[in-house]
Amino acid sequence: MSATRGFDPDWISPPGDTIKDALACRRVPSHLLAKALSLSEACTDKLLSGELAINARLAESLASFLGGTPHFWLKRESIYRHSANGCSARQPMVDFAAFKAALPIKDMRNFGWLRDFADEPEDAALKAFFEDTPGAWVASGPTLAEQVRFRTSFAHKSNPAAVAAWLRQGVRAARRISCAPWRPERLRAALPTIRELVRIKKPAAFFPRLVEIGQACGVAIVFVRTPTGCRASGATHFETAEKAILQLSFRYRSDDHFWFTVFHEIGHLLLHPTSPLFVEGQDYEETEEEAEANRFSADVLIPAAYEDALRTVDRDFRAYARLAKRIGVSTGVLVGQMQNRGMLKHDQMNYLKERYNWADIAAFTL
Fold first, then answer.
1. Burial 21-31 (b: 16+ CB within 10 A, else e)
2. Higher per-residue confidence, 87 vs 95
3. Crossing angle between the packed helical segments 70-85 and 56-66, to the nearest 10 degrees
4. Half-sphere exposure of 166 toward its Cβ, with a 13 Å CA cutoff?
5. What sign has the CA pseudo-torsion 255, 256, 259, 262?
6. 240 sits in which H/E element
7. φ and ψ at residue 64, rounded to 5 degrees
8. Topology classification of domain 15-85
9. CB 142, CB 199: distance < 8 Å
10. What is the pLDDT of residues 49-77, one digit of tens each?
11. Where in the chain are the domains?
12. What strands lie across the sheet with 277-280, from one edge to the other?
């Protein structure tokens, strides 16, 4: 499909009709569209019917999969929404009141997420918080919430709308960070440099450097505190094909959890770059991709060459400190990895872990 500079029809039709025509022309089944856009079949049906709006991420994916440019798809969306607002054409069938009721609005205000919209009425402020293009709060709010997969046993404890708000704030924070174009080979080459930061105790000393390394590789690394109902420790997704977002929450506030999450998320970016959204934490569904990212993180932190040393180290805090220095990690990371590998119980040696407090990381809160 070629981009049409003068695209300005005098008829009302959802962008889904253009998508269907392109699929038919290429003889592509709709389930492949869902996979290419990383949407559920239900969300894909809504996209085709006009209930789900095209945002910047979907516009890039459509351009890559079907042709045209992101601008073409965003303009197609904008024209449809503008025309539909002035007539009896179909409207997006999303219940804003229900979505709003599920949002952690008190935390969103307390954390400063709505500060940019302080002069707006509450409903307008919330829509503006989620919106990229006309009507796109639907895509970056409810649809984002639908994409997050929870473990069944934790479904009653977690709030998809709260997770969507947390992820959305991560996108807004990432847009303040200028990055070089995404270069996975550069990120892989930077792993030893990132690993050197593990032994630094204070976030004020290591976090700015971590952000700088990410910028050079095309990754915006942001810290966003989790609101009530969101129990995530980290997430990765691509805002555009040229910019990845690595979002951290410092939820567990210990060095072993933090650095394992950092390398777990980097693992997703390097191993699963075509999957646009991963959310980590004990509430979230385990997949083979999650297992691969876990192995990646564990191997970066403590390579296989040190397995025998882990098994034979004396059960003494001085011995742990010496081994951690030899490996090049903090004593807390060493203890955490030994716990995860079944070499220590989870209640043993925890006093060796570095504990962060919110005052240490307040400067990075976004």
1. ebbeeeeeeee
2. 95
3. 120
4. 31
5. negative
6. strand 234-240
7. -70, -40
8. 434 Repressor (Amino-terminal Domain) (1.10.260)
9. no
10. 888 888 878 888 898 888 878 877 887 88
11. 15-85, 148-364
12. 219-223, 243-248, 234-240, 277-280
| Percent residues over pLDDT 70 in the chain | 87
Length of the chain as a residue count: 366
Decide: 216 and 190 in contact? Cβ < 8 Å: yes
Q: Is 283 helix (H, G, I), strand (E, B) or coil?
A: coil
> In what helix (H) or strand (E) does residue 237 lie, and over which residues does it extend?
strand 234-240
Per the DSSP assignment, residues forming a β-bridge with 245 are 220, 237
Per the structure block, which two tokens stand in for 301?
A: 């932190």
Side chain identity at 191, as an amino acid letter? L
Amino acid of residue 330: S
Do the Cβ atoms of 158 and 229 come closer than 8 Å?
A: yes
The rounded distance, in Å, linking the Cα atoms of 289 and 310 is: 26
196/59 Cα distance (integer angstroms) = 38
**CA distances, 227 to each of 17, 108, 239, 366 (Å):** 38, 7, 22, 12
The DSSP bridge partners found for residue 277 are 237
Taking residues 345-362, report their average pLDDT: 86
By CB neighbour count within 10 A (0-12 exposed, 13-18 middle, 19+ buried), where does 315 fall? exposed
- Rounded CA-CA distance 210/366 in Å is 16
Query: Is the Cβ–Cβ distance between 94 and 105 less than 8 Å?
Result: no
